[in-house]
Amino acid sequence: MLDITSTPLKSLLHRRRPGYSLEAPFYLSPEIFAADMETIFQRHWIFVGVEPDVPEPGDAMVVDIGGTSVVIVRDDDMNVVAFHNVCRHRGARLVHDYKTTVGNLVCRYHAWTYGLDGKLMFAEHMGENFDMSCHGLKPVHLRSLEGLLFLCLADEPPADFDDMAAVMAPYLAPHDLRNTKVAFEMDIVEPGNWKLTMENNRECYHCAGNHPELTVPLFAEGFGFAPESLDEAGRLQAERYSCLVNENHGDWEKAGFPSRCQEHLDDMVTGYRAERLPLDGDAESHTLDTKAACKKLMGKFTNHKMGALHFWTQPNSWHHFMADHAVTFSVLPLDAEHSLLRTKWLVHKDAVEGVDYDVENLKAVWVATNDQDSTLVGYCQTGARSPAYEPGPYSPHTEMLVERFCNWYVGRMTEVHGL
Q1: Is position 41 within any domain?
Q2: For FRET with 35, which of 76, 122, 196, 203 sits at 20 to 30 Å CA-CA?
């Protein structure tokens, strides 16, 4: 374990001021970045993809978390399993492509060959006393939450994943993600520390002035507002939103779609938040015209107007699930000042491109929103480098969820190291 007890990180964690942003070294320091990778990304459940990334036996996907490479494989029994992407011979990287299809996992260096269950099947010239059963691939903890895939690189993963799963499975099950396909995916390298990307996501204070595409169907009020600052029109809008939430939650839950807010962002190791929120007017989905992007609905849905289920997990994901499609987001740190944002758009597996959906329409809102957010994250990263930067106060009405992310982060960093 990285010893941080005598480093500046210890004092930075101890003097963190509640209700304020973190000090600049949390966003700039390579040493703190290394501590983040060891403490957060090597020890917690990390969202990395969806079961439709590997839909058929032999399908494989590689995920790199810092210096650790993992290969996720669909085996011959249709189970999804994960292994360290390292040959047990001399440590060569085993699978080189992000996504591929294999019969077996074959090392390009000396052709050591592993089955989809990770067992070593072939290793030439190793002598008669060589025991192949002792040289299988090293497994990685993998859990599927109704089709959402989470990895944990620790020997002992946090046990409270089961608690989250018990609550969230009924929320996610109606969307039947296992019977979807990835219609489109894209990666963005954001010019900022991973915490800035997450903090930006955890509030919509910035939405009205920066996300014209997203805020057509989305109520910014769903992520907080200050009642005393509203004019008459704003007050009426907030009241209308509150009524819609109450009415829709009741109707949706009677129809078998759990909707009410579940929030454990900073009081669980595996922190999460979820709520099904209404969309404005006649909106059906996150599209430019607010209408459904896919004619073939997901899972159990028969009505396009079912709002949008928002699901966040600590430390690295957020998701939007609608009746017609879903969008998943994962953040993977690259270095102290750059992060990979990976976005996937899912539709029913039988939906036909060009007939049931148009990819450009499907992705337009979140492609624009991701680009806008990346710019904003870059602004914050640049500002953190300035000697004038100092932690600023969060809005108690619109940035309370940012505060809970920072509470979670500081709490995990201090608890893991016994500080």
Answers
A1: no
A2: 203
Q: Are residues 70 and 169 in the same domain?
A: no
Containing structural domain, residue 268? 162-416
Task: Look up the pTM and report it.
Answer: 0.95
Number of compact structural domains in the chain: 2
98 and 210 fall within a common domain: no
* pLDDT per residue as tens, the chain (419 positions): 556 555 689 999 999 999 999 999 999 999 999 999 999 999 999 999 999 999 999 999 999 999 999 999 999 999 999 999 999 999 999 999 999 999 999 999 999 999 999 999 999 999 999 999 999 999 999 999 999 999 999 999 999 999 999 999 999 999 999 999 999 999 999 999 999 999 999 999 999 889 999 988 777 665 555 566 667 776 777 778 888 888 999 999 999 999 999 999 999 999 999 999 998 888 999 999 999 999 999 999 999 999 999 999 999 999 999 999 999 999 999 999 999 999 999 999 999 999 999 999 999 999 999 999 999 999 999 999 999 999 999 999 899 999 999 999 999 999 988 77
Alpha-carbon span 320 to 302, nearest angstrom: 18
- What is the C-alpha end-to-end distance of the chain, expressed in Å? 14
Instruction: Of 113, 108, 110, 117, give the one whose Cα is nearest residue 138.
Output: 117
Q: Are residues 104 and 178 in the same domain?
A: no
At 191, the amino acid letter reads: P
Contact 340, 46 (CB under 8 A): no
